[in-house]
Amino acid sequence: MSENTLHLLLCTNGEPASYAALEYGSWIANVMGLPVVLLGILEAVKDEKKVKKLVERASAGLAERGVPYRVQFETGRGSIVISRLAAEGDFIVVVGPLGRPAWRRFVQGRSFRRILARVEAPIFYVRQSCNRLENILICMGGLGYSLNVQNLCLRLAKIGRAKVTLLHVVEPVSFRYPISREVIDHWREIPATNTPQGKALRQAMLKFESSGISVELKIRRGSAVHEILEEIQQGKYDLVGLGSPYSAHSLRHAFLPNVTAEVAEAITCPVLTARYQPESTPLETEFALSHDTRHEQK
Fold this sequence. Notes:
Helix content: 40-55%
Radius of gyration: 20 Å
Largest sheet: 10 strands, mixed
Number of strands: 10
Strand content: 15-25%
């Protein structure tokens, strides 16, 4: 992800439910100092008028904030158009609900799940705009899979001088291997253990502390979705960062719950998700590992 070519891709298919994402995208583009591609998706000929109306409204907001932007119209199904455009450049996608009827959501699932599966770029999923960035929650999730979302949230925390909370949920396990047994038996003290989870948590804490960010670590035990939602309800966060279930290039995502989608669909505050791409963070990973090694040698 290059600083010189990075853009925000703001997406709408003309549905009123998608406007919150346009509003948030205009605000976050100004905060991050990024140019915008404003994408109007024409899913049917009859939608042209309402799509152009929302695009014009979003354009006015971008112009008012002084954000550089260009408008692009494309024809096709929302998730397919977004994934194709996102693959053609260096983007962070900003998208909200695409206003599907209830029967279609029941049969096919929400559009966000298809976007999450198809789009490899980072995604802001916005159901309700929140023009504030003071309190960020990062859900640590699977080992390493939250690294890219950590990096993006670090950048945002620096800009907004936000407080960051790292949340790790210890879930029940069916098989008690030595590492899982240590995690379960010492779940409250997991950051101090020599488990992979403990090392990952220490590295994340160090990353934010060394950047001057106020960071707190919380450990919960139970179902990941339930515990994350409870923490969000109690914490009143402005942004929730989650790793992508598609970070693992395997069948893992086909057999385990889509925690990211379930959380994003249940809350109203903006969600940021990003796939783990190890080739994009080698220096940072090396930095974290070397610091963690020195910590353990003391």
